[in-house]
Amino acid sequence: MKITVNTKLYAVIGDPIGQSLSPQLHNGLFKANHLDALYLPIGVKSEDLEKLVDGFRIMNFGGFNITKPHKMDIMKYLDGIDPLAEKIGAVNTVVYRDGKMIGYNTDGFGFIKSIEKKLGNIQKKDLSILILGCGGAVKSVAMALADWGVKKVIITNRTLEKAANLSAQINETWPGKAQAIPMEETHLKEVIQEVRVIVNGTSLGMLDHPERSPLLKSLIPKDILVYDMIYSPPKTQLLKDAQACGAQIENGLEMLLYQGLLAFELWTGIFPAPVLGKKLLMKGLE
Predict the structure, then answer these.
(1) What H or E segment, with its residue span, contains residue 275?
(2) In sequence order, which residues have a C-beta less than 8 Å from that of residue 177 and are 6 or more positions away?
(3) Which of 8, 68, 71, 76 is catalytic?
(4) Tens of pLDDT along 52-74?
C-alpha cells in the first residue's frame, strides 16, 4: 500500500511481539474496507512504555492494541477507561480520538462470541463454566462472563490462593457469581458434574509441550464443551482427549478473531465480516 501523511496508524505493542497475528488481521481488514490505514507490530520494554505512548500522541495514530506484559501498566498512561475494563484491571485496546486515549478490554467479548453458537439452547442464566488457570486473559474472560450473566464461574489453579483472589474480586462486583476450588481430581470430578463448559486458560498444551494437558482424560464427560484458549497448535492434547470422549471442542482462534473485530469497530465504526477475519488469521498461521 502507498503510505501518505494522511495514513492513519495503528499498532500492537508488547514484549515479545513477533508472534502476533494482529497485523495480518487488521491490515487485511483495512484493505478490504478501503481504509487508508496501516497496522504495525511494535516491541516495547516496560521502562519505555510511557515514552512510546507519548510518541503515539504526536503521531497520526487512531489507536493500538496491547498484549503481554503491558495490559495493566498501560492504564496509568490513558485519559479514560471503559467501566468493564476498569473492573477487570486490564486494557487490550486503546482508541485515540479528539486528543483522548480511552482504554477498553475486548478479550471477554471475544470469548463470549466464540462460544455463543456452541451453546445451543442453554440459557446463560443456567450456564456454569469451569476455568483452569489464572493466567493470560482468564481474568478478563471470567469477569466478562459474570457481567454477561452466567450462573457461575468456577476457577481452579495450582496455586489456590490465586484462584481465591480472582473469585473474591469477581464477587465484589457480581456477588455469588464466582467460586474457587483446588486443582485436585476429587474437587474437579465433583464440579465437572455441574458445568457445561470447561476452559483451559493455562499454557499447558502449547507448542513447547504439545503432549501436556491440564485435565485428566478420564474426567471429561461427553455432554460438554471443552474450550482451549490456545490456538497454536490448533488441537491441543486437551482437545484431542475431549474429542475422543465425544465432547464438543473449540480452540482460541475465534476468541482472537472476535476481540480483534471489536477493536476494529471501536477504531473505525465498522464491524467486519467474521468469515473474512477468520480467513486472514488462518492465512497468518500457515
Answers:
(1) helix 274-285
(2) 146, 150, 152, 153, 170, 171
(3) 71
(4) 999 999 999 999 999 999 999 99
Delimiting residues of CATH 3.40.50.10860 domain(s) in the chain? 8-105+256-285
Name the residue with cell 469477581: 170
Domain with CATH 3.40.50.720 in the chain: 109-251
User: Please, what are the averages of pLDDT over each run of 10 residues along the chain (286 residues)?
Assistant: 90 94 98 97 98 96 96 97 95 97 97 92 94 90 97 97 97 97 96 97 88 96 95 95 97 97 98 97 92
Helix (H, G, I), strand (E, B) or coil at 224: coil
71 is known as an active-site residue: yes
At residue 117, the pLDDT reads: 85
Contact 147, 108 (CB under 8 A): yes
Backbone angles phi, psi at 62, to 5 degrees: -100, -15
Residue 138 contacts residue 68 (beta carbons within 8 Å): no
CB-based contact 139:88 (threshold 8 Å): yes
pTM over 0.85, yes/no: yes
Q: Around 60, how many Cα atoms within 13 Å sit in the side-chain half-sphere?
A: 11
Class of the CATH domain delimited by 8-105+256-285: alpha beta
Q: SS3 for 103?
A: strand
pLDDT of residue 48: 98
| Domain 109-251 fold | Rossmann fold (3.40.50)
